[in-house]
């Protein structure tokens, strides 16, 4: 029986991919102005970014434990193997909660095949992992082989971000108020990356163009042949910048297989409007 792939809204995959590959998405909770919303269900990214630009304080919360248990139970009852790939445990408590719910479901249905996999990724980096798993599932690949691929993919996955306004990172506790103020004054654009599932500042450059140029330099340093690799770019309501980066990548790496989508509330609530992120592998993990 075909493996069911589940992800949460932090994967930022385009709806067309989710629908075509029958990936079930569970929404994280986005809090704005004291109200709770379901990411990409009761609040769209553009609505969130509008609120943030107008000064709204935003936070996020993990997927509801009840939602996770009910969803996993649905497939366990039908003896459908299921893999729930979660947003990085370094950014959300969803993974830990999902493991608890999975254990309860496995006790109730001991013959079921249910796995929870920590992506250690975010946005479309995590999304690429989900995408490749769903492609394998669509081809009828077995439960164990998909989990093996996910482990290899996770080891090779690279995330590089830049943000447009340090104020949002200050609100999330990533930089000091002084650094945020001076960065805005001097047009400093931090370049960040992921280590062990958490987001860390890597270096600072002055100006958007230099930030993009540095992102490409880092990509050159960290990867080899990209001809058979799917890359991804996500953005916080800044498709123009995303397309600029895309053209720079095509010119430098001669690849056209690039997924672009807007960052949803799970990540956008912390990174803010204008964020641009690039995702690729250290070496190809071709599954499709």
Element layout with pairings:
Blueprint: E1 4-8, H1 15-20, E2 24-26, E3 29-32, E4 35-38, H2 45-53, E5 58-61, H3 65-77, E6 82-86, H4 94-108, E7 114-118, H5 123-138, H6 143-156, E8 157-162, H7 166-171, H8 177-186, E9 188-195, E10 198-206, H9 208-222, E11 231-235, H10 239-253, E12 258-262, H11 265-271, E13 276-281
Parallel strand pairs: 1-2, 1-6, 6-7, 11-12
Antiparallel strand pairs: 3-4, 3-5, 8-9, 8-13, 9-10, 11-13
Helix pairs in contact: 3-4, 5-6
Distance separating the two termini: 19 Å
Output the CATH class name of the largest domain: Alpha Beta
Helix content: 40-55%
CATH architecture identity of the largest domain: 2-Layer Sandwich
Strand content: 15-25%
The coarse silhouette is: globular
Number of helices: 11
Number of separate structural domains: 2
Pfam families: DegV
Protein name: DegV family protein
Keywords: Lipid-binding
InterPro entries: DegV, DegV_C, DegV_domain_contain
